[in-house]
Amino acid sequence: MNPITRWWRSKGHGIHSPFAFRMVTGVLPERGRYYAYDDIEQLPDSGRLKLLFRVVCELQPSTVYGLFMPDMEKAVILMADSRVRFVDDPENADLFVGALPRELHEGKSALFWSAGPAWKEFRSRLTGGMTFSNGRVGLAVNRHGLPRQDFESAF
Fold it and tell me: Vertex 111, ends 109 and 116: CA angle to 5°?
């Protein structure tokens, strides 16, 4: 996708799904300050951690799986929702962070920090849900009623 089309899409133009529109215009790009931003900005790589915070606030997972997830990512997830449990079994996770699952069953989401070849291969295997990417970060959401669509956006 060329840069002009990506910019146009990042403003929500041409997106018909209310869920996708909200993700592209209000969650993925930083449009304001959340209550935990002062604490998050003290951490290294705060831009990535603020994105993680916004995604957790929006998707509200009850369980999170992240193989070798750093403590600062866990802390940010708990800032977003202190009820989140971290699980060692990917089958029991609602949200995968940093690790792509083999399949993304309904009701599951995955946030991947490197939208390179592994992301493209993962996205090609998906049979349902939506993906969002800016070329560096990829988010896949498979919720009931979401059609299979891919969105490239500037965030």
Answer: 125
- How far is it, in rounded angstroms, from Cα 73 to Cα 64? 11
Which string of DSSP letters, residue by residue, matches 71-121? HHHHHHHHHH-TT-EE-S-GGG-SEEESS--S---TTEEEEES--SHHHHH
Mean pLDDT (10-residue bins), the chain, 155 residues: 67 79 90 92 95 96 93 96 95 92 91 89 92 93 92 84
117: Cβ–Cβ under 8 A, 6 or more apart, which residues? Answer: none
CB 94 within 8 Å of CB 108? yes
Structure-token pair, residue 6: 């990506």
Tokens of 133: 């990417």
Q: Which of 153, 141, 137 is nearest to 48 (CA)?
A: 137
Is the pTM higher than 0.90? no
Q: What is the helix (H) or strand (E) element at residue 124, kind and residue range?
A: helix 117-125
Q: Which two tokens stand for residue 45?
A: 């790589």
